[in-house]
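Reply to dn_fold:

You asked what the input looked like. This is it:
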Amino acid sequence: MKKILLISKVVLGTGILLLSLNSCKNETKQEDTKEVAEDQNEAKFDSIDSKEDDSEFLVDATEINLAEIEIGKLAQTKSTNPEVKKFGKMLVDSHTKLAAEVKTVADNRNFSLPASITEEGKDEYDKLNEKSGLDFDKKFADMMVEGHEKAIDKFTKASENATDQEIKTWASNNVATLTAHLQHAKMLKQDLDKK
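and this is what came back:
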């Protein structure tokens, strides 16, 4: 009887220890909002690959918009160059509009989207925020060229490959907007590189 009582105490104690270690492990790091949205969409559309691909594009589009909005705000407050400030304002206005459109399309399909800038976006923001003066402006222009090239690639692929016609059309319609941003960023970069 004493052996059974002792064994049950050991098993119970081990179980409590494992539970407490597990709960401590789960509380250490906050998840990236992009990963959360992707996981939610995978769970919803596990058996429908085409919806999962479309949801991944909308998650990526949201990630792009959130980063561009925050970096545009930073350019408006931190730069002393009027052209950089103007470009930053245009980014905030344009990507806020795109973000609202993505949210509507996603809500109509029950897709989850990131709610805030992702860890990668925050890292890029922080790197830019460390700069000042002309170094800030040049880094900003470089980021805008690179970021818009990647965005155009994602939107072009979605305009060709999305299975949902509305998503395909939306992506296609916005390639021109992103291309205009890219051209503006390249001109800005060219001007700044001369300084």
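The chain has one domain: 50-193.
Hope that clears it up.
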